[in-house]
Amino acid sequence: MKVTRIAYSNNLNRAKYSQLVEQAHRLGAVRALVWRRFGSINGVGISDRQIRDQWLADGTAEAFSVLANAWKETVRDAMADIKASREAAKVLVRKAIHHHYHTQKERRDAYAALKRDTWTSDAFLCRLMRKHWRHGVSRTVNQIVVRSDQYRTFTLPGEGNVWLAVPSLARRKMISIPLNTTVAPTGTLRLIVRDMRVEVHYAIDAADLRELRPCGTAKIAVDKGYSEVLTDSEGTHHGQELGDLLRTESDYLKTKNARRARIRAVIERARNAGDHAKADRIAANNLGTIKRDRRHRRFTSRVRTVTFTAVHAVVDKAKHIIAEDLTRPFVSRKRLGKDTNRRLATWTKGITAEALTHVSERRGSALTLVNAAYTSQVAPCCQILGKRLGDRLHCTQCGDVWQADHAGAINVLERDGDPDISLHTPHTRVRQILQERADRHRTRLPVQDSSPTGRRANHPMRANCPANGKQCAARPMSAARSIANFSIRPDNWPRQ
Ligand SMILES: [Zn+2]
Fold first, then answer.
1. Domain range spanning residue 351?
2. Which of 232-243 are b and which e, b meaning 16 or more Cβ less than 10 Å from the residue's Cβ?
3. Are residues 366 and 382 in the same domain?
4. Which pTM was predicted?
5. How many A from CA of 406 to the centre of ligand 1?
6. What's the gap in Å between 13 CA and the centre of ligand 1?
């Protein structure tokens, strides 16, 4: 597995910076052209070499006015991006194939056509791909991709930090960039030119930085909440500062965007009145994106830090982590509407998924993904759909109150090895299965409260939540397990 490292330029002078900006800008036009011409079905089955040869032959390349190596690398990079977007769409199409075809052979043929990119001649696959793979547009104008044999690194005598010499717009003239690190970047570089400095992104093998911290020994399930990064099946909350972080940012964005909209309205009015000078002036001075983008990057990196720290804390305990498949969209985009907070929370799911995969791999723990349908609604005590009130989950059968995320994590743990509910069981079917199980053991149970030694007597109610010490109404894991193992377990319920 590869991980990205970033080195930054240190006191880069203005002349060099503006040269790099110009180069990145010209390469941006190349990138946009690649996306425009090959970012859809037209680009399927075409390699970057074919594009390169064609553009060299028909004179397209001359208009770029950058060195040949620079635009060729950009074409390669853009084609790789296009391929990645295409592959992402295939995940959804594969699922649709499974539903559409019923014999093994038909399915196999369709999967193969999808994989070999020969789907363009198949009407069904073509329609699906066009539906899930929208034509992309590139507006990136601040990147320069430099191949490993096109740059060199060096140090000056008496100086620890590394310098990086990259090609300029003129042949045989290099631009030397002082970096803020003593580690020389390697492999293909991606220079991102912004905020008066250059970011040097490069990939290194994760094996080279294998963590010395070992993982734990337990088997732990995690549930993604809204106010914290994760809650584990032992009831511990990890990364609780995430909720505040998201709320603050969402409030900030709400007022900020409202004010920007108001300024935009003033511009619009000025333009309609014919005062273009005023409109241009406001657009240039009051609607900039530099500070906004800088703030966004800072916010993103804070969220990432909180998330990765939380996942590390889970891996400290766990050898085997069970989690829901967070990359699966389960809320439709439309329903999120204008609610920034929920949108941000949804966005953090991707980061959590990334952190779970990477940290597990680096520290040697196993990660199992399970179907998460209804895990946040089932009361672990009686295995029935409970009633959710805020972050509480009420069991309608025995009256227990659970902290919803803790209950979710316990249910996720139960899903591992569930004989009926696999990762891809549709949620409607999951609901049906849960309903059947509940009905089956409800008929076997004695009438509630009829016996003094009933389950209720066993409930250690209202224990302190191990994470925050508050009375969060969730019982510690051990108690929950002992009850789950009590007589109410249906026979086909998997034992851990
Ligand atoms: Zn119950």
1. 218-370
2. bbbbbbbbbbbb
3. no
4. 0.63
5. 14
6. 67
